[in-house]
C-alpha cells in the first residue's frame, strides 16, 4: 500500500506520465541495440587503435535516441569500465575509454577518434 501511494505521489509531483515512461524505455532499448552494434562492429573490424572510435560511436548513436538512449549508454559504458577495472585492466586505458564515451554521448562527432584506414563500412 505504501509503495503504491509512493509511486502515485511521484507521478503527480514529477509530472511523469506513462507515455513518457514508455518513450524512455523504448529509447533505452534502442540505445542498448546501438551500443551492441558498435561492440559487434568493433569485434568484426578487429582494427588496431579503433577502440575509442567504437566507444564514441556507440555512445553517440545511443544518445541521439533521446534521454533513454543516453541513460542506457552511460549505464553500459560505466558497467564495462568498472568490470575492466576489477579484472585488472589499465586505469589509464579505462580513463581514455570513458573520455571517448562522454565525447560521443555529448553529441560530438565520433569520427574524431576514427583511425586512418578503418574501412568505410564502419
Topology:
Layout: H1 2-14, H2 18-45, H3 51-63, H4 67-86, H5 91-105
What does this structure look like?
With 122 residues, the protein is mostly helical. Helices cover 73% and strands 0% of the residues. Helix 3 (51-63) packs antiparallel against helix 4 and helix 4 runs antiparallel to helix 5 (91-105). The termini are far apart.
Task: Give a short synopsis of this structure.
This protein is mainly α and 122 residues long. The chain contains five helices and no strands.
Can you count the beta strands?
A: 0
Secondary structure class reads: mainly alpha
Q: Runs with pLDDT <50, length 5+?
A: none
Q: Write down the overall mean pLDDT.
A: 88
Q: Which percent band covers the strand fraction?
A: under 5%
Instruction: Give the N-terminus to C-terminus distance in angstroms.
Output: 51 Å
Helix % is over 70%
Q: Biggest sheet, open or closed, and with what strands and sense?
A: none
Number of helices: 5
Tell me, what's the shape? globular
Order of helices and strands: HHHHH
* Radius of gyration, CA atoms, in whole angstroms: 17 Å
Signal peptide: 1-18
Family: Belongs to the SAA family.
Protein name: Serum amyloid A protein
Keywords: Acute phase, HDL, Signal
Amino acid at each position: 500500500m505504501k509503495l503504491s501511494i509512493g509511486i502515485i505521489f511521484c507521478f503527480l509531483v514529477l509530472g511523469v506520465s506513462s507515455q513518457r515512461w514508455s518513450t524512455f524505455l523504448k529509447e533505452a532499448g534502442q540505445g542498448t541495440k546501438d551500443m551492441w552494434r558498435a561492440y559487434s562492429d568493433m569485434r568484426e573490424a578487429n582494427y588496431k587503435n579503433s577502440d575509442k572510435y567504437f566507444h564514441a560511436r556507440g555512445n553517440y548513436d545511443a544518445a541521439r535516441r533521446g534521454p533513454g538512449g543516453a541513460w542506457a549508454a552511460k549505464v553500459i559504458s560505466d558497467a564495462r569500465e568498472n568490470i575492466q577495472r576489477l579484472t585488472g585492466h589499465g586505469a589509464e586505458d579505462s580513463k581514455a575509454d570513458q573520455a571517448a564515451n562522454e565525447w560521443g554521448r555529448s553529441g560530438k562527432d565520433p569520427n574524431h577518434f576514427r583511425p586512418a584506414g578503418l574501412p568505410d563500412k564502419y
